Amino acid sequence: LQHYPVKVYRRDGKHFEGEVFCEVLSLDGAPKLLSVFVDQTEQKIVERQLAQKDKFLEAAADSAELFIRGQDIEFGLESLLKRLVDVACVCRAFVVQNRSVNMSDIEFRIISEHTSKDLCKCHDEGDLVWRSYEKCGYGRWSSLMPQGKHVSGLLKSFPSTERGYPLSADCISLAAVPIFMGEVWWGYICL
Fold it and tell me: Looking at the predicted structure, is the pLDDT value of residue 47 above 60?
């Protein structure tokens, strides 16, 4: 039984993926062609999603290893963020570090960032300046993330105070996940 992977196009221009199985049989002394088409569109979609998830999990495992080793965190972040941008198919990824100023205020700064080719970096030397979550309008983040909660969604659904720095003007959606060092909220990674 021979089989061939094919992409079949419908009249409307859309396509679906599948396999054609062919066999020449002898029926009453005459050759007959038996062929079967199997639509594999859903299977191919699931295979691509699983491959993407595997890449993402590999990148997540690499980031966990980076933090667990406790080496110079900034050293491996650029390559890790590049990988996350590629794997997650996002425009930008960055890591934010926190510090406590006093019992009531936490400050942050971007320590590493990677963007896709067609997007300019938002962080520059000025980002080495520590900024207050409260004063920048991100008080909600500084109350959710220490509890292990993430912040994600379409940016247009966020309060207007959360649409400025450190997010870029062309940001449509985001996922910000807290990073902990032991029990302490160290910062977050944002895609």
Answer: yes
Q: Is the pTM of this model over 0.85?
A: no
169: burial class by Cβ within 10 Å (0-12, 13-18, 19+)?
exposed
Residues 73, 19: Cα–Cα separation, whole Å: 48
